[in-house]
Amino acid sequence: MKKSSTPVRDPAGKTRAPSGGADRASDAAGPVAPAWRVRTDPTPLLPDERPFRVLGTRAEAAADPALLLRLYAELVRGRRFNTQATALTRQGRLAVYPSSTGQEACEVAAAAVLAERDWLFPSYRDSLAVVARGVDPVEALTLLRGDRHTGYDPYRHRVAPLSTPLATQLPHAVGLAHAARLKGDDVVALALVGDGGTSEGDFHEAMNFAAVWQAPVVFLVQNNGFAISVPLSKQSAAPTLAHKAVGYGMPGRLVDGNDVAAVHTVLTEAVDRARGGGGPTLVEAVTYRVEAHTNADDATRYRDDDEVAAWRAYDPVRLLEGALRGRGLLDDDEVARVARDAEEMAARLRERMNAEPVLDPMDLFGQVYAERTSQLEEQAARLRAELDAAAGAPGQEEAR
Amino acid sequence: MTTLATGPAARAAKPATMAQALQRALRDAMAEDPSVHVLGEDVGTLGGVFRVTDGLAAEFGDDRCTDTPLAEAGILGTAVGMAMYGLRPVVEMQFDAFAYPSFEQLVSHVAKMRNRTGGAMPMPLTVRIPYGGGIGGVEHHSDSSEAYYMATPGLHVVTPATVEDAYGLLRASIASDDPVVFLEPKRLYWSKSPWSPEAPAAVEPVGRAVVRRPGSSATLITYGPSLPVCLEAAEAARAEGWDLEVVDLRSLVPFDDETVVRSVRRTGRAVVVHESTGFGGPGGEIAARVTERCFHHLEAPVLRVAGFDIPYPPPMQERHHLPGVDRVLDAVARLQWEAEN
Fold first, then answer.
1. Do A189 and B118 touch (CB under 8 A)?
2. Catalytic (active site) residue B141
3. Active site residue A302
4. Model-level pTM greater than 0.95?
């Protein structure tokens, strides 16, 4: 093919010289590629290189003392809630408890940034956020206790049921936020997911729908380092999980997940942005799960004690306590008072969880459909008869 | 018991296709209730690949009839969130096998949300799925997935076989406070029947089976795309001296034991006919239910006529897979053989 020596026009309409054979398409005097452009400038969407921090930085001075003290009390209560719930698993009062010890700053901030009319979409590790949102602790624990799937009315505090399948609650958050906006309601949805959950297809689909619809939703990834035993390095090759946002056309934000003031700041910005019509944000909070995945897990099989010790030293409660003491906002008396309140909360929780729940086996058939099918009617009658036989004639089984 | 319209309105009716009746059902539901939203791939500007959503976006706007990104789990998952906020989403899955990516949303959340929340959070959404073969579709365009949905407590599974039912059952499904998997038999989309959109004939409610053809010597139990096959077989069987009753289930969940049992106890013989696979298919459940309830009335074992237990074949082979009139008649003949031996 003969090389053209005449200048060609590029799609943007600028005249430029032929590229000397490096670009075959422009060598030929054939068709010109139709106009093409980047739809969204990715630069403003990119996360910061380092996680955003407030405590121990110049930004700390500007933080509202009253807010910090409130978050401190919530963190201490949250920590106590985690240790109490973990103890309840050892006593057999909870079937399982996925502790969020070390991640309390994310949990507390997620609940704190939402207005009453907003919605929280938690995953199974987020009972703390659910409690911080105002749900009765016993009701928040029914899933993990094993007596009911969801112990609370989702509409009362606008908290979706704790989701056990990973990332499947994220499209729900998008759909709810979208529906609210269609109805003209000023409602934001905040959805929680872990680092492992970002590998799921539903994570991708939720991000994409949220960005295309510009839904008022905020995604908070609590990157705690492990999906049960699988470390982040085997989970994702992305530069950071926050970078994933850019591909969907939404901003990604990286925040220190142990710095409650920082998480609160970044989430507040994201919620405000969503409320103002600015669309979704993906926030990655870098934190660590210092306890095992659940009481059924042996974390020593997949991570070093040194790593755990380093993260235990960088504790969200002590981080804030140190900052508040440094600014003279907190003294021993206040620390003791907050600890006492948390202890009372734990004692009440312990006492209530020690009571056997009263369960009605007939509830099994109660809420499968709005109306029972004839098939379920038959099965309910059969269970009723079994229960009546067991209650009315002790020893009958042995006699047969 | 048939739902064929016979009143004055029906006399004025013109032939309409099942696709037109479904479109009308969506339109009427959206006009009556502003909380009804249609969403799916290609449902807006294009009007759906089968044109069932034709004109809805133009009439009700993009917010009520929404073209979504191509992502079935996302479509159904966002519909769950919309239902949580008080809307009544009607989701279109473009083809049967395209619905599988949304399966987790369907079984883990749509089917269970009422139960998980002790009744606080019902899921009034409808998932429309064109299903079944016979239209020459390439792979993944002809599956009959009803057994998967039937095996999931919390879902209603509904499938119309007539133009009247297409309208009536879809209206009822959208109005239901429970989630409905609404299976639309693709090869009946263009089947016509006199039907008046201004005065649609009343149909039996969801959960009730209908005797489409009364008979006395055996019962054909069927639904959706196999109903016309069974009606044709029943006509053909008259020459052999068989007077076949044809029961159209209309709803697989809930299952109308009463109508089916009443028929089989009277006729003493039953064949279940469907095009999905036989092994682990709906016919096994139906045959077991009939046997448990009618054992002493049966003159022969309950037989099944189903598709082969193979992945749905390529279009040039599908005629060998789909149960046709001859295969139904063979089964009816076996009922006689079984009775004599």
1. no
2. yes
3. yes
4. no
